[in-house]
Design goal:
The chain is of the alpha+beta class. The chain contains 16 helices and five strands. It has two domains: about 220 residues, no CATH class; about 100 residues, Orthogonal Bundle (Arc Repressor Mutant, subunit A), CATH 1.10.10. Helix 5 packs antiparallel against helix 6 and helix 13 runs antiparallel to helix 14. The model has no long low-confidence stretch (mean pLDDT about 90).
Length: about 325
């Protein structure tokens, strides 16, 4: 409800009554002043869309100046021709500075991690939290849409104390959270930056007709999930790796893990077999370890089950495979 209150502050600055708006989304004026009150994602979507139209401000009062209707569509269109997500985000951050100089956004890459970092250039004591949340949810949602993939966050930081509604941040920015940080930022796997954009002008036009869910609801599909699962399995190949273990490592539920792998045409068992097989073949070729030790290193509980699985993968026993590879 704190975000509803922030939007209503923009109505006050504009000398407008929010009565019609609150009635539309079925929010009572009294509930706006209840810190523990909550609204649904659908209510937030309806509220934001109606307020943008009435205020003539796509930023909903988040910045010192209004952003005319179509501003964020213009930013998306200006980035649409980028060959990769990385270039699209750089362009978006640069062009956002043309809309407002209250905030400066920058894409920073450090090793395997990328971040969108926000530099604040203005002091908006009333709407500061809403301003930062608004712009980071906006760019994160658009980035996911550009590549048609969920981009899991490895962390989100905000330069203010944890608010009374801090539990809501787990839904908006799933992943490790830190308050009282030097700057606002979201962090994610840098490999997403190399993915190509999967949208065109026609798709952009359709998205802009109903863009708000991108900033309210989390994207489900993850085009890097298969690769992330393989890395998680390969990091500790000697473990059996249950669905619960892998899901916990990737900060998703086992049910979500299975569903998203299915969407990508894969399964956890298939990926486990691939990683185990690669590990086993590498050890058989490059080491002198007995088959029993190779089996344990590849994550099998006993030599017999390893030999049976290896025959299914290659049509050979481990000993035959090793002999043939060494001529």
């Amino acid at each position: 409800m704190a975000y509803v209150a922030a939007i209503l502050t923009a109505y006050q600055r504009d000398g407008r009554s929010p009565a019609k708006l609150l009635k539309l989304v079925q929010i009572t004026p009294a509930s706006v002043h209840k810190p523990a009150a909550r609204i649904t994602a659908r209510q937030m979507e309806l509220l934001s869309g109606a307020a943008m139209q009435e205020l003539g401000d796509e930023a909903l009062g988040a910045f010192g100046r209004k952003l005319p209707w179509g501003s964020y569509g213009m930013l998306a269109r200006a980035s649409l021709s980028s060959p990769t997500l990385g270039l699209a985000l750089k362009r978006w951050c640069r062009h956002h500075a043309l809309l407002t100089d209250d905030l400066c956004l920058k894409l920073v890459v450090e090793g395997e991690q990328a971040a969108i970092v926000v530099q604040e250039n203005a002091d908006h004591a009333v709407s500061r939290e809403f301003s930062l949340v608004h712009v980071l949810r906006n760019i994160h949602g658009l980035a996911c849409w550009f590549i048609d993939s969920r981009i899991p966050l490895q962390g989100a930081r905000f330069p203010f104390p944890a608010p009374p509604h801090a539990d809501a941040y787990a839904h908006m920015f799933p992943g490790p959270l830190k308050f009282d940080a030097p700057r606002a930022a979201i962090r994610f796997d840098a490999r997403y930056l190399a993915l190509p954009l999967r949208r065109d002008e026609k798709a952009l036009h359709a998205m802009l007709q109903r863009a708000l869910p991108l900033t309210v609801l989390q994207y489900r599909r993850d085009r890097l999930l298969v690769q992330q699962v393989r890395l998680a399995l390969a990091a500790q190949p000697e473990r059996s790796h249950s669905a619960q273990d892998v899901a916990a490592a990737l900060h998703v539920s086992p049910r979500t893990l299975h569903r998203q792998l299915k969407e990508e045409g894969a399964s956890l068992q298939q990926l486990k077999d691939e990683v185990r097989g690669e590990r086993a073949r590498d050890l058989l070729c490059r080491s002198e370890q007995p088959v029993k030790q190779v089996a344990a290193a590849a994550g099998f509980r006993n030599e017999k089950s390893f030999i049976r699985a290896f025959r299914q993968w290659t049509g050979q026993s481990p000993a035959q495979f090793r002999a043939l590879q060494r001529g």
